[in-house]
Amino acid sequence: MSSCVSYRVKNKRLIDMSTSSKLLVAAIDFGTTYSGYAFSFKHEYETDPLKVCSNNWAAGSRSLVSLKTPTCVLFDKDKVFDSFGYEAEDKYSELAEEEEHQEWYFFRRFKMSLFNKEKRLSEDVKIKSTDGKEMTAIHVFSAAIKFLRGHLLDTLEKRATGVRETDIQWVLTVPAIWDDAAKQFMRVAAEKAGIAREQLLIALEPEAASLYCKHLPVERLQAEGGAQGFVAFSKGSKYLVLDCGGGTVDITVHEVQVDLTLKELYKASGGAWGGTQVDEAYKQLLIKIVGAPTMIKFANVHTADHVDMYREFETKKRAITGDTKGKVTIKIPISLVEMFEEDTDEDIKDSIENTKFSGKINWVGDKCRITAEIFKGLFEAASNNIVAHVTDLLKKHEISNTNNIIMVGGFSESPILQHIIKQAFPHMRVIIPPEAGLAVLKGAVLFGHKPATISSRVAKFTYGVATTMNFNPNIHPPEKKKKYGNQIKCIDIFSKHVEKGQQLKVNEAQSENTYNPVEDEQTSMCFQVYTSTELNPAYVTDEGCEKIGEMEVAMPDTSGGRNRSVMCEMIFGGTELEVKATIKRNGQVTKAKFNFLGSPGKSSS
């Protein structure tokens, strides 16, 4: 039964998770466009926190070497995992060239499927491959994480480190703006990939990046023009972390405390304004010239060329600056031009002449020359959203006197985006640390060694559970009236545990509410957990309330009838919602699992 009676207990308890005891911390940064892993040993962290090892990935078709690999997964016709990253891209391209790819499943840039606000997330949710075939998302995500986990373990074995898997603290990164269901989905995927629950931490991407910046020497955090240098982690410093990735832009604001831990000043926010929006703008530009049918056919017939075309564009995104004038030259596979001209009997030059790009784009062979103005315009949709959001944030009283912006994430390596941010906020010191694209990954390793460096976060919502109380006709609406045996109760009461905007100390049980069963023979207590956008919701059915999951506590001993109290502690300070339940009459403690994925659970652990 989900209904129960409650009263509040005031004291708070501390949960110790200040420092990892594991020999090695390994972090997986699972990005929208690129992924990678990094690790460091405990003894090396204690002497040099920045001594973090990462992998070099090779792209066979272009002889590229990078510190991350594309987030692409390939499965065969039986849905058996085949390859990941550059290897998956190259193999699928080869299959397509031989026209043998039709029954294979190729997924790329699928992480954002967890940011779908329209669809309730569950373990049964399906996502589509690049050619529209479906597979369960959990299978795709877990296969990708399993590959990265296995690759890391192989690396450790080749180095003869002697580290056993039980010696590893794993860390998986997620955007701070994701909801609890998406975070749990990633945890479930990691467990299915072979990572033990008790060895896994979830790190919020902008927080991880902030920790990385903490350990950088001052001289490596120079602002534009080499001005003074910003002591990122002196006591009282306030700064906004602008984490611009491939899919999402995550923003958090931190203040350094006396003990040099970090306090979040305002709830994490952001949106789907990452670098993939620029890629989409580029795609739409090409469609205006060659047409959608040709672009679709090109992707299917000349898959390798299609992949190389976007790799080339990725390079240009990081090379062109805000000061670039004249025209930008981009190499585009000749096969696209040939296909267009063959299918339409039209010359590519004539096609351009008939568009608004006449005189602004020249396309000859495999070289397309675009005016710098048009190229920079590809960044407009993403950058406008980012600038507007940061502008609104800086008006919040909670973050007044914040004068520093630290740009991290792969998209932040774009000189054009850097230029736009500096122009939009001339009164702010804008700092781009070296290897901004690796800040999240390396910071996640640091977080794994010492999670308690983030000492306080801000509640995004009001949290509570659905409960009951004695029905009062003078207060409660008649539709909330329900009979349990000889008791008349008001159902759907919002029993508040945490209030929106409340500062949540890490490792501290924020509130302890005690609940009782409503029926004598009740053998379990099922708590339905809700969030609300309001400060003080009365009922869980009020506008702004959303059920985010359930937890269940087994109570097989019914001898106490309704006088069996369960004390519920909610610990919100970490990156995930943790819950502990204590049956008062026997002191039995259970850690109740939250189920955010839409399917009710029946077990406690």
Automatic annotation (TrEMBL):
Top-level lineage group: Eukaryota
Pfam families: HSP70 (PF00012)
Gene Ontology MF term list: ATP binding; ATP-dependent protein folding chaperone
InterPro entries: ATPase_NBD, Hsp_70_fam
SUPFAM superfamilies in the cross-refs: Actin-like ATPase domain
Keywords: ATP-binding, Nucleotide-binding
Family per similarity comment: Belongs to the heat shock protein 70 family.
Protein name as it appears in the record: Heat shock 70 kDa protein 12A
Organism listed in the record: Magallana gigas (Pacific oyster)
Biological classification of the source: Eukaryota, Metazoa, Spiralia, Lophotrochozoa, Mollusca
